Amino acid sequence: MKNNKSENQLLVREVFSKFLDSKSHRKTPERFAILNEIYDLDEHFDIEFLFSIMKKKNYRVSRATLYNTIELLLECHLVRKHQFGSNIAHYEKSYFDRQHDHLILTDTGEVIEFCDPRLHNIKKSIEEIFNVSIEKHSLYFYGKKIKNEN
Amino acid sequence: MKNNKSENQLLVREVFSKFLDSKSHRKTPERFAILNEIYDLDEHFDIEFLFSIMKKKNYRVSRATLYNTIELLLECHLVRKHQFGSNIAHYEKSYFDRQHDHLILTDTGEVIEFCDPRLHNIKKSIEEIFNVSIEKHSLYFYGKKIKNEN
DNA sequence: TTCATTGCAAAGCGTTTGCAGTCAC
DNA sequence: GTGACTGCAAACGCTTTGCAATGAA
């Protein structure tokens, strides 16, 4: 399991590299460093968090570059963006995950991922009814753990 | 249909009034004026838009009060809040509407409302699987109109 | 060499806060 | 009368922008 991670790092670097080529963007070390750090994380993160862990590792990196690079990573679907209610944008790596949705526990802030195939059927219906092509969806449930009182 | 609107205005004022009582909040004219303006709108709006239309109608109202009052209206479920991707919060009146979800056309910015009962089943399953009680959900589809080429 | 990209700092902008004046109770 | 509420302006915090320096092609 553990060495999947470094294999994956190689794979996503490759994907990003091809994307940058195709758009004639430069392959700067900063861009790949950021990609690496993101794929090293196992949780959702915001820009400030990413900035702080990269500073801690003595990278010379600016918030501006983080925002720019994340933008590119969104474009090539290596990262997903979330707006969990507040004004701070949250992100997560997305390449090896299946598309999934989120259950947010409002008391603890915990975020649980789930995937329900029935959502796909709803999507299909909406596409037919309104004659649209849906590129993306976002579904969040907000709730609380039920405590058993024994 | 038209005079439903003023009947509704009375009804929501009543609801808001009861809510303010129950929380020992004061019934200021500003709060009711804001409620009225919101229930006069038929679209989604943001604070800046609400501010501008109230200014245009010569209300003496501040953004601070708009934010404060909206907060109260959210609490008593007379208004719903949305975060359609960007950092600007959007709102809509919610008292007479059935709970519904949104399809956002990314090219035109148009927002279409829909309601699919199957979502309820998904919710039920998630509640059972994770042993949670879900208070709220948000579902957005993002897509584009399909053009017929005849 | 050239100009896309970078780091840094300043500016933007939606939202929140502080405060003196006001008015619902 | 009193303290919750208001308008105003300043502060906040995330994000974007401007710009001189840098380095990928």
What distinguishing features does this structure have?
homodimer; 150 residues; alpha+beta; Arc Repressor Mutant, subunit A; Dna Ligase, domain 1; two-stranded antiparallel sheet; 5 strands; 21% strand; DNA-binding
Short précis:
With about 150 residues, the first copy, chain A, is an alpha+beta fold. Chain A is built from 5 helices and 5 strands, in the order ααααββββαβ.
Shape, principal axes of CA atoms of chain A: globular
CATH homologous superfamily of the largest domain in chain A - what is it? Winged helix-like DNA-binding domain superfamily/Winged helix DNA-binding domain
Spatial order of the strands forming the largest sheet of chain A:
4-3-5
Oligomer state of the chains in this structure:
homodimer
CATH topology of the largest domain in chain A: Arc Repressor Mutant, subunit A
| Main beta sheet strand tally, sense and closure of chain A | 3 strands, mixed
Helix-strand sequence of chain A? HHHHEEEEHE
The number of E-state strands of chain A comes to 5
Helix-strand category of chain A: alpha+beta
Number of helices, counting only DSSP H or I runs of 4 residues or more of chain A:
5
Q: CATH first level of the largest domain in chain A: which class?
A: Mainly Alpha
- In angstroms, what is the radius of gyration of chain A? 18 Å
Mean pLDDT of chain A: 90
* Strand residue content of chain A: 15-25%
- Distance between the ends of chain A: 38 Å
Helical percentage of chain A: 40-55%
Q: Total domains of chain A, how many?
A: 2
